[in-house]
User: What shape does this take?
Amino acid sequence: MVYDKHIFICTNQRVAGAPRKSCGEAHGMEIVEAFKNKLKERNLSIKLRAQKSGCLDICDFGQTIAIYPEGVFYVGVELSDVDEIIDEHIVNNRVVERLRLETVRAKRLNQ
Assistant: This one.
């Protein structure tokens, strides 16, 4: 099946004591379940899939999700951000700039 929007939520977990963070340690599966439940509740008329993924390799920016076909990466995602991402990106096709990888990366470089 081809999806109009495909959401990948990192749930990677590294071994204890690993030098890098991992998304799954924080709340990866909680975010997967939140996306699945909220999308099901809304019963949107587009073909959607939200699923867990392995490492997206930008762990230093916090919990990461990627949405395709746009190829937008969101970082530092919290449970409280799920509704905004659905409303803005999934429903209205607008990027949530404050969570977009490029925006967060640029802010870090300017600090």
Remarks:
- Residues 5-109 form a domain with the Glutaredoxin fold (CATH 3.40.30.10).
